[in-house]
Amino acid sequence: ADDLTLLALNAELVIRAFANLESAAEFEESLENQLKDMVKRGKNLRVKLIEDIDEYDGDDPLFPWIKCVKWVQEAFPLGGECSRLLVIYEQCLFLE
């Protein structure tokens, strides 16, 4: 349900971006490509944020966690299971 809500929130922007396309098939293909690209960028950024947590060597061990949590909250404003925010919170509790 959260993925569908997120899709609905972005639908207006996507429709505006592809409003000048001539055919429904072209629109559908472009929409699918944009959604795939959004998912790929999101996964890549999540992986990068987690790598930053693992590689962090600064004075504030919470800094990379806070950065990751902020991104997740922005990327998944409705939260929910697909955000995996609870997993991040749980992992943060076990800092060494």
Keywords, please?
mainly alpha, 96 residues
Overview in brief:
With 96 residues, the chain is an all-alpha fold.
Could you walk me through the main structural features you see in this protein, from its secondary elements to its overall organization?
- This protein has 96 residues and is an all-alpha fold.
- Helices cover 73% and strands 0% of the residues.
- It contains 4 helices and no strands.
- Helix 3 (63-75) packs antiparallel against helix 4 (85-93).
- The longest helix has 32 residues, at 24-55.
- The relative contact order is 0.12.
- The mean pLDDT is 78.
Can you tell me the overall shape? elongated
Amino- and carboxy-terminal Cα gap? 35 Å
Radius of gyration: 17 Å
Fraction of residues in β-strands: under 5%
Indicate the percent of residues in helices. over 70%
Per DSSP, the total helix count is: 4
Please give the largest β-sheet. Answer: none
Structural class: mainly alpha
How many E-type strands? 0
| Secondary-structure element order, N to C | HHHH
| Average of the residue pLDDT scores | 78
Protein name: BUB1 N-terminal domain-containing protein
Organism: Brassica napus
InterPro entries: Bub1/Mad3, Mad3/Bub1_I
Pfam family, one: Mad3_BUB1_I
